[in-house]
Amino acid sequence: MGSASKQSNKASKSNAGRPSPTDRRARIAELRAEEERRDRRNKILAISVASLLVAAMIGGGAWIALDAKSKQDAKDAAAKAPVTGVKTFDNLSRNHVQTKVSYPQTPPVGGDHNPVWLNCMGVVYDKPVVNENAVHSLEHGAVWVTYNGKASADDIKTLSEKVKATPYSFMSPYPDEQGTVTLTAWGTQLTVDSASDPRVGQFFTKYVQGPQTQEPGASCSTAQ
């Protein structure tokens, strides 16, 4: 066998098993197509996940907004609803005076008062306060909680916690009052036998900075 024939046989053997250029191009094209399909699938998946997240956020935001509106509507309805047993008093004077005032109600519900108001930002006083200063706080929209010796320790504890959590309210003992617990706002008063009476919460809802307020938004934090 000649040398040319031997070289041809060697070349044939060395090329055996190797893909042809055409096969390589086809394989590369196939790989690229598969990669493009995978990219499309990933993009579709990402878009789907993002859409679900956006929908969930929108839905959650809408639910939160609806829940907040529902709670506000309930609060507004409670504020408008009458509280059983409340007494109201009209035509109360509002002069600033430096002298003692003889009030017809016990505790007083309004009238002439001292130029200085009591700190009524959820303050619980352990001793009786001055009527004339307390009435000025009522003018600013505060609710005044008072109690006498018939109030139990649980009553006092419950009312104290309620007042401490409520700006524009204050609390003090009032030994001379007839009712066990009295809730007073400007021109408005309710007497109950215990702190567990549901009207206590109703009174707070309706009259803390309520429609009876003579000076809406006035400060309640400057102490006497």
TrEMBL record:
Record's keyword annotation contains Transmembrane helix: yes
Compositionally biased spans, kind Basic and acidic residues: 21-38
Transmembrane segments: 44-66
Sequence ranges of Low complexity compositional bias: 1-16
Keywords from the UniProt entry: Membrane, Transmembrane, Transmembrane helix
Residue span of region Disordered: 1-38
Name this polypeptide is given: Uncharacterized protein DUF3105
